[in-house]
Amino acid sequence: MNTCRIVVASSDADGRGELRAALExxxxxxxxxxxxIQTIQKACNEPHDVLVMDSIVEGIGAYELCRAIxxxxxxxxxxxxxxxGTMAIDALNxxxxxxxxxxxxLAELLARVRALLRRVTRSAERDRQIVLLDRAIDLKSxxxxxxxxxxxxxxxxxxxxxxQLVKHADTSLTHQSxxxxxxxxxxxxxxxxxxxxxxxxxxxxxPDPENPRYIRTERAVGYRxxxxxxxxxxxxxxxxxLSQAG
Length: 246
Fold this sequence. Notes:
Number of domains: 2
Shape: globular
CATH architecture of the largest domain: Orthogonal Bundle
Number of helices: 10
Distance between the termini: 20 Å
Helix content: 40-55%
Largest sheet: 5 strands, parallel
């Protein structure tokens, strides 16, 4: 079991307490945040691995908190509460990695926390770079470096989607298979979330996001990562390792 430091953020003391007790039983170290300011401070200034956050904290929506946190932290973020729809899309657009709508079973939320922890842990173990024509994907620090001195940070979900695309470079992946490999569910309900992540990745990776060079859309199918010739030769060993790990 992967154990880590988790922040539980909610204005509902009972809800925080219930979730804290359940996560502590799994061996995690817990911290609580009751206000929006506490949530931002603990997520950005303390060494936590995951933030599990209510959809509204102290009257402020999770999407607003994600927007404040993401420029300063790459920790995993799971949002709970509210119906699946605009609120979920806004949170994911702002940098959340997963969203679980109410009502939900506590065991499902715990399972999603465990899944995110496994993926974050595996991702942190990577130490290679994917060298592209004008930039590089740093798999250890979850950053896209270049052009020049520019650095773009990847959220855990962005990293996992990009990792899958690179692993299967120059091969078309269907929407559902890509969503399933990242969210570790059947993928059927995650396609819209996948489109959001792809859009975010293109903003960070592509010289022209509206005319993508690397993450290409395969109409009526899904997506394909185009590996430039230089990047392919420079990363042949890495691609082999990914195929063996998968």
